[in-house]
Design goal:
The chain is of the alpha+beta class. Helices cover 31% and strands 17% of the residues. The longest helix is centred in the C-terminal third of the chain and has 20 residues. Belongs to the MnmG family. TrmFO subfamily.
Amino acid sequence: MNNTLHIVGGGMAGSEAAWQAARLGVNVVIHEMRPKVETFAHKTGHLAEMVCSNSFRSDDDEQNAVGLLHWEMRQAGGLIMACADAHRLPAGGALAVDRDPFAEAVTRQLLDHPRISVSHEEITALPEDGHWIIATGPLTSSALGQAIAAETGAEALAFFDAIAPIVYFDSVDMDIAWMQSRYDKGDTEAERTAYLNCPMDKAQYEAFIDALLAADKTEFHEGETAGYFDGCLPIEVMAERGRETLRHGPMKPVGLTNAHAPESKAHAVVQLRRDNALGTLYNIVGFQTKMKYGAQTEVFRMIPGLQNARFARLGGIHRNTFLNSPTLLDAGMRLKSRPHIRFAGQITGVEGYVESAAMGLLAGRLAAAEMRGTPLSTPPETTATGALITHISGGAEAKSFQPMNVNFGLFPPVEGLRGGRRGRKDRYKAYTDRAKADWTGWLGQTALDAA
């Protein structure tokens, strides 16, 4: 027990934690209850299965905080980023992946590693001893969730995470829709035409909003409340905040020219992003929803170009649980009341695939270093990974703690730089330059076992 690191959960965080710890010479057991115990959101038994979007978001490591996080994970030999790069799909300046081959690749790499094994028994209680990382993500099982709540003395916080629908490409009317990335962004023709665009005029947009607001929605169970994460709001919730909200959010028409009518300016545009390498599936960008299935097909077929759409997957909604980490975890991601247990991933209050994997990377390295008798400090808060761990372990306000994507607002300012929008490009470049130097220095503290 004491010579083995046990990781509960085989999602992005658990998979990355296992990989990093094993490369540091530690034996690892991943406890993943799937497929023996299923969840309603997962479809396979693969590790690192993507259940929502297939995008890792921006890959710009000079002007974007999540792109910087990509860079840091690549420099650390991250498994998640390596497999994402190997199964990349055209997506303009974003990193989108072919979800099933990606998960299969992660699973294969972990199962092939001589220091990693996988157990499919469900963990239902907090362990009394040993070395543990809990990375069960947003769908922590009821029994383990109750055990965590009992230990922390407070109910775990929760919000609801909604899943966007996926459309079969051959059901899209390409006499109406066209292929173009916003502002033609990308270095190749495939990148510049990575998104499928469906235009709406003002009357069509207004009718769509009316239908969206009137549609039947999923009811919450008694005692549940909808505390949404603002980065993953259902479209109907956005519409309830104002009729123009969607037109200035996921349906904004800027940077796009209708290939069928170049002189006609769309009032709103619905974008779809490729969801697999074959290009047979496209997900509707930003269209996570809690509408009932019947309502979804009716409302989404109001979108010009999708009037005959067939859906490979409709949207859904599920409860997403996370800790009040600023009060419960120390700077090393350890549970203060049981320091032999670390938490990682989305359950700590970070949001997004990449952020979850980054917290797994950090937890795996910290745990392995401690087990080897060479404790490791957390990375500087000037790095993307360090900014995230600083935020969740005390930098955030505990009373209003909510899931957080990585962003430059979490970074310490660089002195002497111009503020405001006009100084943003230079400011962001200064953030990323500083972060890369500091991350490289932090990585030098550990020597990875090549086996």
